[in-house]
Amino acid sequence: MTTHHPHAKPQASKAPQTGGMGFAPMGMYTGPKVSAQVQSITRAEAQRLLDNMGTNRARRETRVAEIAGAMQAGRFDSLNGETVIVDERGRLIDGQHRLAAFLLTGAASMQFLVVTGVAAESWDTIDQGALRTHGDIFRMHGESNANVLAAAARWQWLYIHDYPAGIATRSNAGIDRRTLLETLNEYPGLRDAAVETNTIYSHAGRAMIHSVATFVRFNTWRISAPNSDRFFQCLETGDGDLSTKTVRAFRDKLLARRSRSQRLLAPDILVMAARVWNAYRKGQALAKLFVGRDLAAPYANAPRFQ
């Protein structure tokens, strides 16, 4: 088998090989054995496979967009051992998100490791292993507080890009893993912030999501370390004077909503924290801590830390 470069980017096809993909029409597959080889899949072939899928899960367009972005940025390794699987009838049973993402890039072709000839009923045995989370990837790169840092790096990426629309509110969706690792390396102070906010996470009844506390601590410390120290001391203990009244009100709200059924979502806490910090820095009070959230644009009311 020809050796291919492991980091495949969207690229134009060379002259087509005789026989193309070698996929038989549905119901006409004649190969008796399972086989695997690197194939250069064209847009037409990818579309045909997607149009002729067997039983499969619903497509997650957010995931498709995430993979497409990674492909366009050269961060997607299409030859990392993961396969596109086509059953004995020529139907696609694994790889729909990758193929849909490839189409979204506009590239003419892309290489994939393709397995053909598996039994038609094999679809319900695919993806039974545990999915590697962003936190797993950070841990494999030697990071402590891996889950916290993966989510905090995501908040940081959102913040420096002005909270682009279309990114899901879940902390493990919308941004590829290599981008998150690069964000952490660009803002290494997040590591120290994760350690420092362990105390508030533990002592304040776990009211403030640890990754959000890490993100807020890092960005407020960059603006004013003494003010950030006092701000977080008040969040942790509730101690303070008139100047920290709004901070204490924020703490009280977090503690009042710490039960699982009433817990505020991370975007809500993030928006509130930025508003409270800015009011604290200006010596102002807030008539209302939470201004509501548009489900279609959860970060629309998120101010910059000042």
Note down, in words, how this protein is organized.
There is one protein chain. The protein has 306 residues and is α+β, with helices and mostly antiparallel strands. The chain has 2 domains: 35-125, Conserved hypothetical protein from pyrococcus furiosus pfu- 392566-001, ParB domain (Alpha-Beta Complex); 134-282, no CATH class. It is 43% helix and 8% strand. The chain is built from 12 helices and 4 strands. Strands 1-4-2-3 form a 4-stranded mixed sheet. A hairpin with a 4-residue loop joins strand 2 and strand 3. Helix 2 crosses helix 3 (96-105), helix 7 crosses helix 9 (210-223) and helix 10 (225-237) crosses helix 11 (245-256). The longest helix is centred in the C-terminal third of the chain and has 17 residues, at 266-282. The chain is elongated. Residues 1-20, 24-31 and 168-172 have low confidence and may be disordered.
Secondary-structure element order, as H and E?
A: EHHEEHEHHHHHHHHH
Task: Give the low-pLDDT segments.
Answer: 1-20, 24-31, 168-172
Beta-strand level of the residues, as a percent range?
A: 5-15%
CA gyration radius, whole angstroms: 24 Å
- Please give the alpha-carbon distance between the first and last residues: 58 Å
By oligomeric state, this entry counts as single chain
Q: Strand order, biggest sheet?
A: 1-4-2-3
Number of DSSP strand runs: 4
Which class do the helix and strand fractions yield? alpha+beta
Whole-number mean pLDDT: 78
